[in-house]
Amino acid sequence: MSRILQSASERRAETHPLTWRLHDDQSPVLYDEYRKTEGYESVVKALSNYTPESLTDEVKEANLRGRGGAGFSAGFKWSLTMKGEGVPRGYVVCNADEMEPGTFKDRLLMEQQPHLLIEGMILSGFANRAKQGYIFLRGEYHLAAESIRRALADARANGWLGASVNGSGWDFDIALHTGAGRYICGEETALINSLEGKRANPRAKPPFPGQSGAWGLPTVVNNVETLCSVPGIINHGVAWFQNFSGGASADGGSKIFGVSGKVKNPGLWELPMGTTGREILERAGGMRDGLSLKSWLPGGGSTGFLLPEHLDLGIDFDTIGKAGSRMGTGLLTVVADNQSMVSLARNLEEFFARESCGWCTPCRDGLPWSVKILRALEAGEGEPGDIELLEQMTLDLGPGRTFCAHAPGAAMPLASAIHHFRDEFERGITRPKGEAHADPIPVGSV
Ligand SMILES: Cc1cc2nc3c(=O)[nH]c(=O)nc-3n(C[C@H](O)[C@H](O)[C@H](O)COP(=O)(O)O)c2cc1C
Ligand code: SF4
């Protein structure tokens, strides 16, 4: 399913900067072809025309917002990194943990076009005066690992990594680090702990990684798609990136959107930020025959459920935030009319409970408790007061109550499912014991 569904003839460098080189047969774009198609040109330009500060300013001005889920400005993050004279050189880290339920975009980029990620990391390494880059890759992504290893070797052999990058006198290299497949490793400070060989618990902030990250040195963590977006800014300019959506969104650039769930044609499309949910759903061929759309998640399991009436909203960070959800990763999960919201919520909370690192009480104890209640509602064995208890839990798991954003992320789909579909939860208390409910999802099926 991790495939781009726009054909090669439809994709152009100016309109599809992330995917224009991809092959229809999904084979990786190897070094020679990459180099012949403008590959590494942004590095040549950056090393001769920019300073770390001017490169950072350019990315900031372009308004590239982080594609890992939180939408923080990449350039602004880079501007906060300690990197002046006399500051020890630190690290840039690519967050390639991609375990958000329903999300499979970084995988496409890494499997099929690893050189674009390396090019973006070189730019980030230069802008942040880093001495070393790391790609923290989800352990199960074997094909991506193979593709990246080969690309790193080819980039090194051709002078883009190692001592004096492209003859510039600036040394920088990148190492691949494969994780063990834990969702919490995607949280940037837990990722840093894991990279250091420690248990993957999030760290207390401050200090922020930009001041003291991996091994106590300044460290910048960015998502795969964020980093892959940087070469386009340098090649085509800030104005091109800022105006990419033609006014549909205040955010700059393109985005790899996708759809999974009961649609005719699940997959990925590179489109401007601010593309509507309706257009994305139409590209997926609409719902499967006989089904209609009941609800959708705009960007992974840790975002809030929206309704069909939200389909005409442009998908970007602020618009979806105002609608009460989060854009997250921008990969839609659709829910059909015959699917149970109680089952879906239980399925997601099972995942979040399993992936909690156990550091804070509301997350460690609250999430398994919510699963227990949801299982009872699913079986029609709920008790009066269960829904109110679940609602209270979503508040106790909310922002500011725990060390990291895992718990608020887990609370969002549950709170929104109850908000929009309370009657389904109520039927878990009132329907006769033993009566089946619509299309249940098996336990442990995430
Ligand atoms: C529980 C949890 C899991 C996360 N998983 C990922 C992930 O797999 N990939 C990712 O890029 N960001 C993930 N994030 C967000 C990162 O902490 C961080 O914000 C992101 O890597 C920053 O990159 P960006 O600014 O380029 O988006 C996760 C956050 C949390 C709280
Ligand atoms: S919110 Fe959950 S995952 Fe995050 S630190 Fe606390 S226990 Fe760990």
Automatic annotation (TrEMBL):
**Which class of enzymes does this protein belong to?**
translocase
Q: Name one Pfam family in it.
A: SLBB
Its Enzyme Commission number(s) read 7.1.1.-
- Name the InterPro entries for this protein: NADH-UbQ_OxRdtase_51kDa_CS, NADH-UbQ_OxRdtase_suF, Nuo51_FMN-bd, Nuo51_FMN-bd_sf, Nuop51_4Fe4S-bd, Nuop51_4Fe4S-bd_sf, Soluble_ligand-bd
Q: Write out the entry's keywords from A to Z.
A: 4Fe-4S, Flavoprotein, FMN, Iron, Iron-sulfur, Metal-binding, NAD, Quinone, Translocase
Indicate whether tRNA processing appears among the record's keywords: no
Q: Which intervals hold domain NADH-ubiquinone oxidoreductase 51kDa subunit iron-sulphur binding?
A: 342-387
Q: Which cofactor does it need?
A: [4Fe-4S] cluster; FMN
Its UniProt entry gives the catalysed reaction(s) as: a quinone + NADH + 5 H(+)(in) = a quinol + NAD(+) + 4 H(+)(out)
Regarding protein family, the annotation reads: Belongs to the complex I 51 kDa subunit family.
Q: What does this protein do?
A: NDH-1 shuttles electrons from NADH, via FMN and iron-sulfur (Fe-S) centers, to quinones in the respiratory chain.
Q: What is this protein called?
A: NADH-quinone oxidoreductase subunit F
According to the entry, what is the taxonomic lineage of the organism? Bacteria, Pseudomonadati, Pseudomonadota, Gammaproteobacteria, Oceanospirillales
